[in-house]
C-alpha cells in the first residue's frame, strides 16, 4: 500500500469512528420511541407518558410511547435489548425486567446485566399489607397471630404470579414463618375488588393502584413496606416498626436503552429525566400515585437493580416460583 492510499484509508477509518460520536453529540435528531412493556392505561404507562411529555420540549423531539405487553415484560424488554444503540429506542423497566424474571424464567431472551444501558431510575412506591375491614384482626399484631394460628387457611390475592405484590407476600411469609395461600388474579383491579368485597381477606397492594381505597377506608392498612412511613398514610407503621425487619417491599421503575448507548446520549437522557422531576405536573402525578422520585446517576440505577436482584433471588428460589 503506497503512502497516499494508506493516509486515505486511515482518514476514512477515523471519520467512520467519529461519525457515531458526532451524531451522539447532536442527539436527538428524530422521534424517540419509549417502550412500555404493559398495556396502555396502567400505572407504568401513565408515568411514562407524563415523563415523556415533560422531557419532549427540552429534548426538542417527540417521544412516542409504544405499549408492548406480554410474557411478564419479556416481549418489550427483548425488543429494546435488540434495538440499535442510538438512543431512539428506550423503555420503562421495573422489578420484573431488572430483578425478578432472571429467576422466574428458566431462560430469558436477554441478560438484564449485560444487554441494556442504564439511563436512570424513575421512582419507587411501597407496597402495603391490607385486609378487608371486617377481617377479625384489627392491627398487624393481631393479623400475625391469626395467620400463625390458622396456617394455610388464610388466602391472599395478587395481580398475578411473579408480580411484586405476590413476591412481597412471599418475602413476608419467609420472614415471619407463616403459611398464607396465594390466589393469583389477572391484574390489580380484580384482586383489589375481591379484597374490598371480602372474597379474599388480604393482599400486599401498591400505593399507585390502591391509594384511593386505602384513604377511603375500603380496606384496612396494617403496615407499609418502605423504610419510612408514607406522608400519604402517616398513621400506618412500617413493617420494621411492627417487628418484621429486613422486609422492605416496593416496586421501582427506571429507564433503559440497548447496551452500547453512547455516553453523550445516556448523559443527556439522564439529565432531562432528573430535570423532569422538578416539573409541577410530574410532581403532582407522582404524589397522586404515592410514588417517590429517585433522581440520580445511571450508575446508581444499575447498582439498585443488581442489589434488588440479589435480594429477591433467594425468596423466589425458596418459594419455588416459576413462570415457564
Summed up:
Strands 1, 2, 3, 4, 5, 6, 7, 8, 9 and 10 form a ten-stranded mixed beta sheet that branches. The protein has helices at 3-25, 43-59, 74-81, 95-104, 140-149, 164-176, 188-197, 207-215, 263-276, 280-289, 298-319, and strands at residues 32-36, 63-67, 89-94, 116-131, 155-158, 181-184, 202-206, 220-224, 250-258, 292-293. Helix content is 45%, strand content 19%.
Structure notes:
This protein is α/β, with parallel strands linked by helices and 324 residues long. It folds into two domains: 6-125 and 251-319, D-Maltodextrin-Binding Protein, domain 2; 126-224, D-Maltodextrin-Binding Protein, domain 2, CATH 3.40.190. It has helices at 3-25, 43-59, 74-81, 95-104, 140-149, 164-176, 188-197, 207-215, 263-276, 280-289, 298-319, and strands at residues 32-36, 63-67, 89-94, 116-131, 155-158, 181-184, 202-206, 220-224, 250-258, 292-293. Strands 1, 2, 3, 4, 5, 6, 7, 8, 9 and 10 form a ten-stranded mixed beta sheet that branches. The chain starts with a helix and ends in a 5-residue tail after the last helix. The relative contact order is 0.18. The mean pLDDT is 92. Keywords: Receptor, Signal. Residues 1-24 form the signal peptide.
Amino acid at each position: 500500500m503506497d503512502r497516499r492510499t494508506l493516509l486515505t484509508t486511515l482518514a476514512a477509518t477515523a471519520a467512520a469512528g467519529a461519525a457515531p460520536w458526532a451524531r451522539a453529540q447532536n442527539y436527538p435528531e428524530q422521534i424517540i420511541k419509549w417502550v412500555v412493556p404493559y398495556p396502555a392505561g396502567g400505572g407504568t404507562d401513565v408515568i411514562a407518558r407524563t415523563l415523556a411529555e415533560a422531557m419532549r420540549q427540552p429534548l426538542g423531539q417527540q417521544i412516542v410511547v409504544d405499549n408492548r405487553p406480554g410474557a411478564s415484560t419479556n416481549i418489550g424488554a427483548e425488543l429494546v435489548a435488540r434495538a440499535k444503540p442510538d438512543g431512539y429506542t428506550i423503555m420503562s423497566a421495573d422489578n420484573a425486567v431488572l430483578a425478578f424474571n432472571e429467576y422466574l424464567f428458566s431462560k430469558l431472551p436477554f441478560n438484564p446485566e449485560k444487554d441494556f444501558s442504564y439511563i436512570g431510575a424513575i421512582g419507587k412506591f411501597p407496597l402495603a399489607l391490607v385486609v378487608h375491614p371486617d377481617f377479625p384482626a384489627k392491627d398487624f399484631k393481631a393479623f400475625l397471630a391469626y395467620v400463625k394460628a390458622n396456617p394455610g387457611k388464610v388466602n391472599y390475592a395478587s395481580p398475578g404470579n411473579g408480580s411484586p405484590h405476590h413476591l412481597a407476600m412471599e418475602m413476608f411469609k419467609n420472614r415471619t414463618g407463616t403459611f398464607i395461600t396465594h390466589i393469583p388474579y389477572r391484574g390489580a383491579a380484580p384482586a383489589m375488588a375481591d379484597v374490598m368485597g371480602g372474597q379474599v381477606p388480604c393482599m400486599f397492594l401498591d400505593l399507585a393502584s390502591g391509594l384511593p381505597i386505602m384513604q377511603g377506608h375500603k380496606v384496612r392498612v396494617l403496615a407499609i413496606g418502605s423504610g419510612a412511613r408514607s406522608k400519604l398514610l402517616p398513621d400506618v407503621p412500617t413493617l420494621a416498626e411492627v417487628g418484621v425487619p429486613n422486609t422492605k417491599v416496593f416496586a421501582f421503575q427506571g429507564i433503559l436503552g440497548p447496551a452500547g448507548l453512547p455516553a453523550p446520549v445516556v448523559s443527556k437522557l439522564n439529565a432531562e429525566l432528573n430535570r423532569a422531576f422538578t416539573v409541577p405536573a410530574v410532581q403532582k402525578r407522582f404524589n397522586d400515585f404515592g410514588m417517590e422520585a429517585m433522581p440520580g446517576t445511571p450508575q446508581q440505577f444499575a447498582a439498585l437493580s443488581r442489589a434488588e436482584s440479589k435480594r429477591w433471588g433467594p425468596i423466589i428460589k425458596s418459594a419455588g416460583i416459576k413462570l415457564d
